[in-house]
Amino acid sequence: MLTTRARRIIALVLVSAAGAAAAWLITSRLTRGPATDQDEQAREPGAPAVSIRESTVQHSRGGRPAWRLSIDEIQIAGGGQAVAAGLREGLVYDEGRPVVRISAGQATYHTGDKSFEVTGGVKVVSHRGAVVTTSKVQWMPATQTLHCPGEVTMRAEGVTLRTESLDMIVPEDLARAPGRVQLRTEHGQLTGRDLTYHLDTGAYTLRSIQAVFTVESAREELRQLR
What we know:
By secondary structure, the chain is of the alpha+beta class. It folds into two domains: 4-42; 50-225, Lipopolysaccharide (LPS) transport protein A like domain (lipopolysaccharide transport protein A fold, Sandwich), CATH 2.60.450.10. Helices cover 21% and strands 58% of the residues. The chain contains three helices and twelve strands. Strands 1, 2, 3, 4, 5, 6, 7, 8, 9, 10, 11 and 12 form a twelve-stranded antiparallel beta sheet that branches. Strand 7 and strand 8 form a beta hairpin. It is elongated. Residues 9-50 have low confidence and may be disordered.
């Protein structure tokens, strides 16, 4: 059994050793710099802070799914923005049901306002059968609208239209194009502006119309415009 004097000697040795270790650790850190600084310096410029492979990003609204992106890799760079490379599938929901399917090369989404943007060979397919091809589509969560800001081609039953800038309003089953529109049907070709196309019925309105029809199809086409 250790005497009181021996215990005091051992305690003094342990305290001295702990002090020496702490002093070495502080000196070492001051000499080398913080580990986080080294990590930042080692990281390549522009490299993401976090990279996650094979993931699903989704957002709900009112307890129901609003949209979902299935991706090959997600790169989180900070600032509330993440880039998803290799978008396998994107889905937009209406009242809990998937109504729009999206494919593209890349997706960028923002954690702040829950919006996203897809680019690179974008294809949007509505459950009503309409197919939109373009280079970029932006999801506007406030209005639940897919905004196509560039050149767009949309194909629906019996109709093909081309325009610059088109909005697909998901809850209303509407496609709107405020600019110049070229619209081809089985009866002929229309050129006009300010298109509203009802995806559920195929009915549409168009202003400032110029039309080229065969004689036998003109009456049928005018009936569709009413």
